[in-house]
Amino acid sequence: xxxKTLKIVGQVLLFLLGTGLLxxxxxxxxxxxxxxxxxxxxxFSLLLMAGAVWYVPVRNWMEQSAHARGFRFLRRGLWxxxxxxxxxxxxxxxxxxxxxxxxxxxxxxxxxVLGCKIGSAALNARIDxxxxxxxxxxxxxxxxSGGFDDDLQLSEGEAIKxxxxxxGIAEHRIYVEGGSADTKQNIAFTRAVIEENGLAHELVIxxxxxxxxxxxxxxxxxxxxxxxxxxxxxxYILSASYGRELLALTKFFVFPWL
Length: 258
Description:
Layout: H1 2-26, H2 36-64, H3 68-97, E1 110-114, H4 121-136, E2 141-145, E3 148-149, E4 154-155, H5 156-166, E5 174-177, H6 183-197, E6 203-208, H7 209-221, E7 226-231, H8 238-254
Parallel strand pairs: 1-2, 1-6, 2-5, 6-7
Antiparallel strand pairs: 3-4
Helix pairs in contact: 1-2, 2-3, 2-8, 3-7, 3-8, 6-7
């Protein structure tokens, strides 16, 4: 009886966990954010909820089947894969939350503001943080990095520059890189701008904390010294950003040549 009660409690807790995650990953939708990050999270949440409801009945059916032995091996294999995935996600989460090296008190580098969707809360947060940092360090130059948005006929880099100028940063301090499509290209194309204009090669990367690790590591892989200045991710899009970064970091580690 006690064992049965524990199973029921486990099912209820798993269902509640799935429900909580489902709500968390759906929140960004109300702010117009839906992409592979929260889409994957929603699917995972529904899987947990379905598992809480159907795992025991399906397992009982498997045990009563003529192929019970084979089903048992299959079930154990699936559990092992699930455990490995959870361990992998925990490792990637640790990469996201561990602070990256901060620039020295008297930095001698180039501030690099990494782009994302124009008009998004994430991009505004990066621009706000970069403007604060550039005001505190008036001797530094900046590169606004990000490619073209076909819908707006404007590059993310140009949108960042306009945002910085609007916040009081002198236009002559800001250079634009407007051809990149991802973080790897952000860094590579920014390096070209730096070399072309004789700017300092040490990068001070402005992006959100969850993105810092990958950005800094990409810069180091390209032979550049980099530190990070974190922008604050708005809470209502955090789940979508987190989900997408899980996939991006997996690509970074598993397929580094892409």
